[in-house]
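User: My advisor, Dr. K., asked me to get a structural model of this assembly before our group meeting. I'm new to this, so sorry if the format is off. These are the inputs:
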Amino acid sequence: MDRQAASNRNTRAVQIGALKVGGGNPVVVQSMCATRTIDIDQTVAQAHQLADAGAGIVRIAMDSDKEIPAIKEIRAQTKGITLSVDLQENYRIADRVAPYVDKIRYNPGHLHHIEKSKTIEQKVKWIVEVARENNLAIRIGVNCGSVAPAFLERYPGDQLGAIVESAAYHCDLMDELGFTRFVVSLKDSEPQKVIDANRRFAERRPDVPIHLGVTEAGLPPDGIIKTRIAFEKLLAQGIGETIRVSLTLPNERKHEEVVVGHKIIDDVRSGRFISVPEFGKGLNIISCPSCSRVENERFVELAQQVKVLSEYAAKYRITIAVMGCRVNGPGETDDADLGLWCGPTTVNLKKKDKKIGFFTYDDVLPRLKIELDKLIALRAAAN
Ligand code: SF4
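Assistant: The format is fine. Below is the predicted structure of the whole assembly, which you can bring to the meeting.
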């Protein structure tokens, strides 16, 4: 089936394994394993599940040296699948992971944490050398929840400016290094920010293929609607050479991300667009798509329970964020009215960036209800 969306951009083509992204090639749908990478059998099964559903690229998250033997074996059992690795906050494992994947993603906002004596330029140069030596592509993956501090300082109060300039700066570094085999993503959980950031970047760098994503879109159907709002606008303008739909789903349904991605592309190509004028005016639940960092499999169930529990607050403009791990959870919940991030046995509950406390997976729900009632009472008193 021809799934190519209308494209009036003229990006370069980037070779990723056997695939080409950009350069007028069909838009590639990709997805990510939510299994623990050290669980080889589960991760191999999920990579096949995603590829069988039509994922052109399957991403796997890696954090530490301990996962390197696993990725070697996963590669051996997924020949024929184009694999990308997400280096998350540990870019230093890139050289040991590289022989087993086709692409590496680094986050410009996560380079400053480690090897503080080195400059960002030195770190990027090393990543590019690793990619060159191993015949890999790179994704520069910028995320609103983890913007490099230097760019937040340079663009105070202008988060959009900070992420676009951060991405453009890393493109400049690639240019200086003579490396062209890269794509860029600029993600946020708000569809309008995704639209604005990607439009600005596309104008700035019309040559660079873009990977589209609405991060932490959450549970279906709202997560699908949020994603469609952004993707429809951008794809219809020819912006987006590869897409990933991020939904909070149990592992056995993870391939639905890929099915939804293809459906959006088909609909845009056929001129079918959704209309949801009231969407986004009331309660907003954001939740991450989970990945290998989730330490308690009850995360997805918890996100579903939060959705059911908060249905009575549907008309209030309140954001609740539910995140799967303690690495990104604390930062990614800072902007939410109420935030929950999951640890191995407890869930941390926050109000904006203030900690309320940590609770068991059962006890956190009644406490969330108390905090939600308080917020609603405050909103009602203010009106
Ligand atoms: S918040 Fe944590 S568990 Fe969720 S997708 Fe991000 S890194 Fe993975």
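One thing worth pointing out at the meeting: The chain has two domains: 14-270, 284-382.

User: Perfect, thanks a lot.
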